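Note to self: the last two entries modelled the partners one at a time, which told us nothing about the interface. This time every component goes in together.
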Amino acid sequence: MHTFSALSALFEERFSQRHFPDHTATLYDPAQYILGLGGKRVRPAAVLMGNELFGDISEDAYQVATAIELFHNFSLIHDDIMDKAPLRRGMQTVHNRYGESTALLAGDVMLVVAYQYLQKTSPALLPSLLKLFNETAKGVCEGQQLDMDFERRATVTLDEYVGMITLKTSVLLAASMQMGAMLGGAGEGNQQHLYEFGKHLGIAFQVQDDYLDAFGDPAVFGKQPGGDILANKKTFLLIHTQETASPAQRQELDDLLAGNDPQKVEKMLSLYRACGVEAWAVALKEKYYTTAMQHLEDVAVLSGRKQPLAELAGYLLQRDK
Amino acid sequence: MHTFSALSALFEERFSQRHFPDHTATLYDPAQYILGLGGKRVRPAAVLMGNELFGDISEDAYQVATAIELFHNFSLIHDDIMDKAPLRRGMQTVHNRYGESTALLAGDVMLVVAYQYLQKTSPALLPSLLKLFNETAKGVCEGQQLDMDFERRATVTLDEYVGMITLKTSVLLAASMQMGAMLGGAGEGNQQHLYEFGKHLGIAFQVQDDYLDAFGDPAVFGKQPGGDILANKKTFLLIHTQETASPAQRQELDDLLAGNDPQKVEKMLSLYRACGVEAWAVALKEKYYTTAMQHLEDVAVLSGRKQPLAELAGYLLQRDK
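The predicted structure of the combined assembly is written out below.
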């Protein structure tokens, strides 16, 4: 049994090599570049954890974990193009450094290489791993499209937002857990519980992410809060405020969204507080966390084996702070 | 045994359905849109032909043929973004109609759905089909990158150009043939001959394509020749001229490439003719055709079974005209 950080390090050791041929360098160097920007490798560690919950980590688990991490980075490259983001992890995005066309192609080829790693798994598991991987990949694309669709709409319901977030960020974590469980030989029921564990954990993480962007301590959060507010980004907080505001509050909210008030962040935060958003968001995150942990509890293995997954949940949701 | 047109129609009948879920329509309608623009379905027909050369067409062959056609359309959507092309087959390109971000995502999800069709093949064949599909997909991405790289360079050697063209357009036809052969139960040797048949056929087709863009009869070719010349596109013709021109001719060529002479097309064609490019291109196409047919001949099945493939070669290379 390994801790999250041990598994993350174990994966990183194997992962930190070149994943592409030398030729054509103008295509593969940009693909390799983003992998060098680091990251916590949460999803590949989740694959290894899902596996180890049921048995020794198999060689296949590293192939699947690598496929998942490459898929994740493919989606980052393409999302950054769509968002016209200049920076990622404080470094130039791929399209900013190498141009949009090359970034587009580097993302494409990274997705193909993800499938190459998947193809290396044992033939007995390949069909079911590939099936889940494909379904998940479609979901991630749908989530990104919905996110763009929502930007153009005046209002989005909480259910719609949760649906979008689930696809855009949670299903990949959920599928990582489940693919690990498959590799460990888990039955269908246990696989499903682990999928739901990952899914609800992902949603709770997004609630926290939205919360911290508004109410986070800059010293801890690492950046000035209010970025989402300045960008009029639909978040858990904004949506709840829109859904619960009084007519007067709603008017103020609409004026703030439409205008360029220099005090926009402060005024929006006051509005959020007046609508009780802070406590609501904390409770919502807790609700998803509790559901996640219930699914983990329902996995039919000795509870001691679940410790690393519980630890991962605590780490992602900052429950040690 | 079916002719090319019969197989193309047989495939089209199955293919002309919606390949995507109804939701999220903003993502999947654009993906479905490009499939409705038609096309000769050469590659999927090649899968069916490769299969039928060795045995009855299996259900798996339709899955693979669909995967190949979806992959081809994924690459068209993304290439059109990179090329900023407004039209495809006389209709708006996907990015022109739905915006670049959605086109990017629609291409991504189409690639994933291609893998979904592949995943439906029998488990015994899936690993080897997936392996060849992945290698081919990487090659196509490399080819597109090389094409963009070459645009920025002053000169490209003939070998480099053939290498790029092989990756960008020939390996997918070659792999379609080989995957069909796999489905028909062909041995390794026969598979390789069929791959080489498709590869050389693809290169011969590209020689012809470059040739027709310069010397084609507008009434037959369907558009005014000279598009490649006006775009300073590196083609078989331009590269051969650069490699064989006398110093004086080379100077004239460089001046034409650098300037905006209103007589550019006519003057370039004169230069091509002076360098004997016309006959050279016809002979080059013939060379690749002959090599392709040699590989078809080397496939160890009764020669009568090869008739549809020979017919496809004749059709693609206009040997009936």
